[in-house]
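# nightly structure sweep
# worker-07 picked up a monomer target from the shared queue
# config: single-sequence mode, recycle default, output format = structure tokens
# input follows
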Amino acid sequence: MKSIPMNIARDRLLPTTLAVAATLAAISSAPTPALAQSPVRAWGMGGAAGAAARGLEAVVYNPANLAFGDGSSVGLAGAAVAVQNNALSLDRYNEITGAHLDTAAKAQLLSDIPENGLSLDADVRASALGFQFGQFALTAGAVGTGHGNLDKDYFDVVLHGNPVGQTVDFSNTWGEGCALGMATASFGTRLLSLGGASLGVGVNVRYLHGIYEMHVESAGGSLSTGMEEITADAHVTTVSAEGGRGYGLDVGLALRTPGGLAVGLTLENAQSTIEWNRNVEYHEFRLDAADVNLLNSDLDASVSDADTTYAGQAYTTALPRQARLGAAKKLGAFVLAADYIQGFEDRGLTSTEPRVAAGLEWQLGFLQPRLGAATGGVQGDSASAGLGLKLGYWRIDAAAVTRGGVKVGDTKGLGVAVASSLVF
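# output follows
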């Protein structure tokens, strides 16, 4: 009888099993708040803009700041892109890329990956025309974000294979994704004034146009190697839709004191819902391999897989809710700002772990350099730098921010943003 070496059987099983991971790596996640305009100035200041945001940027961070608007602005165009992982820094990536990995190097690489697996994040947003007239604003834009997780056991198998007597479990694998277009109407007004202090309130009412959504309904699997056989199973079920619609609502408060201190409180996505009802599909992939052994001459008979797609019913999703408390003060030519951000769920880039951000802007006439730093939340430690140019009515803003590390070599992600506007 013709025999099948165990390494050949393993070579047939592993690529198919690991294909589940590749599917999840391409999946995006729930959009973060701040949907309407590219938040370039705030990115340069570490993300601290709950009280410092003005004009169109107030739509992103606190619509109540519009209550104190006294001019007009037109957002011409803007874009922001950020990517991040939770395991490999830039220096570490450069160290292992193209290198031969011995046993010690493989063990070190595996230890770089957290016990809950490798997470991947991406955030892309673009803003079209936006208009702000005093206390009112109308904006339009689009956003797509990505977040997925690959179980650590995937990498254990890739680096070390599956030794005899060991079973690996891929159950901590998941992801979700979404791309949206939106149009937002914003308004801020002063509620009361007392002792020289003024309190304002603001609201964003947002129409959400769903472009695409995908999430993992369930995923998992295992691979066991015995003395004479291999047993494996893997499955992933995803749900996707190619269109939908809904709404979102942000509310905020803003306080201005006689001493020049500004304080802001925002509840982002206080209420939101999106019904996905166009081309809804369920996609199921399953692999089963039972007792693949040395005496089995027919490997195809021992390994079965199924790939099924069928129509599904409409479903609804909501955007993650989070609160932002900010303070800002102008000291001479400097604007100092700090924010405390608290998410109410762990989803995408929103986290129940608090995040603290702080930054400054140096207003040097036509030149406005910015610096900032933040810590906590999903994004971890970060540092940022930005630059604003005032050329008459024309404004140009750019920013870069690290993710998961302050130094460039230590960072596990990077974000860049640029925008242009007219301010009158």
